[in-house]
Amino acid sequence: MPALDLSQFHFTLFNALDIVLVALLIYQLYNLIKGTIAVNILIGLIIIILLNFVVHALHMTLLMKILDTFIQVGIIAVVVIFQQELRRFLLLLGRNASLQRNRAWWRYFSGNNDAAKDNYKRIKPIVDACKSLKQTRTGALIVFVRDYDEQSYVNSCEVMDAIISKRLLESIFQKTSPLHDGAVIISGNKIRSASCILPLTDNTDLPPQFGLRHRAGIGVTEANDATALIVSEETGEISYAKQGKVKMNISFAELEKLLNKDF
Q1: For domain 120-262, is the CATH number 3.40.366.10?
Q2: Using CA atoms, how far apart are residues 231 and 186, in angstroms rounded to an integer?
Q3: Fewer CB within 10 Å of terminal CB in the chain, N or C?
Q4: Domain residue extents for the chain
Q5: What band does 200 get if pLDDT is binned at 50, 70 and 90?
């Protein structure tokens, strides 16, 4: 048996870095599609690729031509099929690379604590409104976006452009209000729109008690650079969604910290 020649094999630090980066990339991609319908689609694509190897080995000409044609346009098909997951992945990269995410640098360049004081003024009426909504078990969905694109919401929302206040939020989500059924969009210092219809998440691993309000809140954070605050109509429980992940039954102190961080 001939000896294995390893003389041409050179493992360097950059090779190790390459393996680690690829592993991290695969892990992030797995987190993006975990629990969604995209997992089943990916399994289907893998089956087609394996079937193609079998067909070539057996020289099945007709199936070879069909599968080869499909695989030739595979990259375009993957982009079309996984466009939402690719969008979420690019948003994730953008969020992590954003200078605004690094609070120490941001405060260094902004120069004072005025931003923190303004932040508290925006957060307090939201937290106070949530206390009232929780007590009365009034369902609510509040979405926070960094960059508000009016054209994205104009067809499914009522444009408001109003100053954030406790009483306004309470009024919007009252069951007798014509605006209560849907989400409120907040950007900067303003309530930009209300009664917004949002896309639902495809995640199949959510708790069974999650209704349309929770699924819409999670779905909007999957497809956009947004966070969502959900108040359950059944229990009054407050949940907080970000990047497709949700924290359940959070306290008001934790809610204030989360809003302060994300604002």
Answers
A1: no
A2: 16
A3: N
A4: 13-97, 120-262
A5: confident
